[in-house]
Design goal:
globular; Porin; 9% helix; 217 residues; 1 helix; 10-stranded antiparallel barrel
Length: 217
């Protein structure tokens, strides 16, 4: 699948739109772009399957306009023989807690699954293309007097066709510059699926360490 070209196109498009949309705003706002590589192992129905390096890109827009949600667009691809998808997350979230050392975000995500494939067994397989609603939350703790943050976030969905969890835990280190801030990030990510249309709890699982970088304007 065309992971890198698809993800890059998404980030470029969103960045251009964000600058055009917010250029006239007098309010404070920021854009963060990031890319991760996830070294993942997969399981199908609790049986270890092949490994894959998953690309993930995101663009995040935050502002201080009251009641209007912040927005993040994230792409994650997986391409193994038995589990495949292009997953695009449209996340809308609010920031009920932001202090110097703590953050908590909450909202919802619309996850679009495209170019998908799941092989339950040799006789039952097919796609699970769909758009799924999930709840979103993110938490962060800054180590006092440092630029190091401990971070975690999750999306959880339970619909008639799918039960899914997308969980990330890790650390983020900020490198402030004159007009931008660079970031180095790493941790562990888990993507967990129960694809209900394929039989008795058909189970897909991808998990592994990730590393990446970001830039914030």
């Amino acid at each position: 699948m065309k992971y890198w070209s698809t993800g890059s196109a998404l980030l470029v498009t969103l960045t251009l739109c964000s600058f055009n949309s917010f250029a006239e705003q007098q309010k404070s706002w920021s854009v963060e772009l990031a890319a991760d590589a996830i070294w993942a192992s997969t399981k199908i129905n609790d049986v270890r399957d092949e490994d894959d390096t998953l690309p993930s890109f995101y663009a995040d827009i935050e502002h201080d306009i009251a009641y209007v949600p912040n927005f993040r667009l994230r792409y994650t691809g997986i391409d193994t023989a038995k589990l495949q998808h292009d997953k695009t997350d449209f996340t809308f979230y609010w920031r009920p807690l932001r202090t110097e050392n703590l953050l908590f975000d909450a909202g919802f995500t619309l996850s679009n699954y495209a170019n998908s494939y799941f092989e339950y067994n040799t006789h039952i397989n097919g796609d699970f293309d769909d758009t799924v609603f999930s709840w979103f939350a993110a938490m962060g703790i800054r180590v006092p007097s440092t630029n190091l943050h401990v971070i975690s976030e999750f999306d959880f969905a339970d619909t008639t066709s799918m039960k899914s969890t997308d969980l990330t835990v890790g650390a983020h280190y900020d490198i402030p510059l004159d007009k931008v801030s660079l970031g180095l990030r790493g941790g562990y990510r888990v993507l967990d699926y129960v694809l209900k249309d394929f039989g008795d709890k058909p189970y897909g699982f991808a998990h592994g360490w990730y590393a990446g970088a970001s830039i914030k304007f």
